[in-house]
Amino acid sequence: MKKIFIAVLSVIMAMSLVACEKKKEVVKGNDKVNQEQEVKKEGKIDLSKIELNKGNVEKLIKQILGANKIRAVTVNDSDISIKLFQEPEDEKQFLIHTSNYFIDIVSELFKNKKVENIEFIVDSIFDTKQNEKVESRAIAYTITREKYNKFNWEDIKLQVYSEPKILYDLLDSAAVHPSIINNIK
Hints:
The chain is an alpha+beta fold. It has 2 domains: 1-43; 54-182, 2-Layer Sandwich (Alpha-Beta Plaits). It contains 6 helices and 5 strands. It has helices at 2-42, 54-65, 91-109, 145-148, 153-162, 178-182, and strands at 70-76, 79-85, 117-127, 133-144, 173-176. Helix 3 (91-109) links the parallel strand 2 (79-85) and strand 3. 19% of the residues are buried. Residues 1-19 form the signal peptide.
């Protein structure tokens, strides 16, 4: 009986040692993930400290949104034009998401003192009266540094959730596709 008990105890101890080794491997694996995340954080673009050009602006937008949304970026001296594509969704959510993208991007771009004007265009897919899918301009916003400096954009970003049309009154120009505006209550 003692031999069986010792054998069972030995098996349990061996299993716990194997489990500890697996936990150490998982922790080591997590360390690699953490190191990769730190590298990504270090690679973050700070446009205030680097040259204003198309490549740097694209990198910044990719950090905020991901690469799959970017259609085109144009940098012309102090003017920046950004064209994106956003998949269709509920109209209110669409307006909230794109408005928040706009605020995030503009807040970063205006850190560079050379930036004076930003144009932000988002295209999407809409249904026609004939039930056809058509790509069209969903949102077009423009803002100047002068207008940007008048507001606390973090507060406005929070207000966008309850009042998605708020940017209309704050920007130099704002155009939103009629089907989006008509379907927001």
